[in-house]
Structures are given as structure tokens and as C-alpha cells.
Amino acid sequence: MEKKITFNELRKIKDSLPDGSVKQLAQEFEVSEQTVRNYFGGANYTSGKAVGIHMEPGPNGGIVLLDDTAILDRAKELLHSAAV
């Protein structure tokens, strides 16, 4: 499912994840850790792959269109479980 989110919101989610979450997400989705970082706005395509994000300039770091929200949804679950 597609989702629009600001770049700043996306980075805030990534930066709020508990230690080890990027590695956990990478293992769960069978991708490299750098690919997970790219999902959250990174741009290292030598070590990681593109993951269906499209960025447009705008307020709050711009608008990001995510083609698939599975990683974002799981990251939010990890944040919620860490807060409980």
C-alpha cells in the first residue's frame, strides 16, 4: 500500500527505533541493513538497494512516497513495543 509521509517524520521514526532495530528489520525482510537505511531516507546504493521511495522537495524535508509500507509498519510496531 502506498503512503505519503514527510522526510522529517520518516527520519524521526528511524532515529527513535531501539538499538538493533535496523538489523532486526533487515533480517525480517531479508534485505541488507543498508537497504533498510535507504528505506528511511539513506542514499547508499552501493551497499544497499533502492526500496521504492520517491522524494519530492517541500516543507519538513520534503514529501516521501513509499510504494510499500511493510517496513514502516513493522518499525512502528517496534517503537510501540519499546514504549510499553
Question: What does this entry look like structurally?
Answer:
This protein is an alpha+beta fold and 84 residues long. It has one domain (3-83). It is 48% helix and 14% strand. The chain has 4 helices and 3 strands, in the order E-H-H-H-E-E-H. It has helices at residues 7-16, 21-29, 33-39, 70-83; strands spanning 3-6, 53-56, 63-66. The chain has a 3-stranded antiparallel β-sheet with strand order 1-3-2. A hairpin with a 6-residue loop joins strand 2 (53-56) and strand 3. Helix 1 (7-16) crosses helix 4 and helix 2 (21-29) packs across helix 3. It is globular. It starts with a strand and ends with a helix. The mean pLDDT is 89.
List the helices and strands and how they pair.
Blueprint: E1 3-6, H1 7-16, H2 21-29, H3 33-39, E2 53-56, E3 63-66, H4 70-83
Antiparallel strand pairs: 1-3, 2-3
Helix pairs in contact: 1-4, 2-3
Element-level helix/strand string: EHHHEEH
How many beta-strand elements? 3
User: What's the Cα radius of gyration?
Assistant: 12 Å
Q: How far is the first residue's CA from the last residue's CA?
A: 27 Å
**Any idea what the shape is?**
globular
- Average residue pLDDT: 89
User: What percent of residues adopt helix (DSSP H or I)?
Assistant: 40-55%
Number of domains: 1
Q: Supply the number of helical segments.
A: 4
- Which strands sit side by side, in order, in the main sheet? 1-3-2
State the low-pLDDT regions, or none.
none
- Kindly estimate the percentage of residues that lie in beta strands according to DSSP: 5-15%
The biggest beta sheet is recorded as:
3 strands, antiparallel
Which class do the helix and strand fractions yield? alpha+beta
Assembly type of the chains comes to: single chain
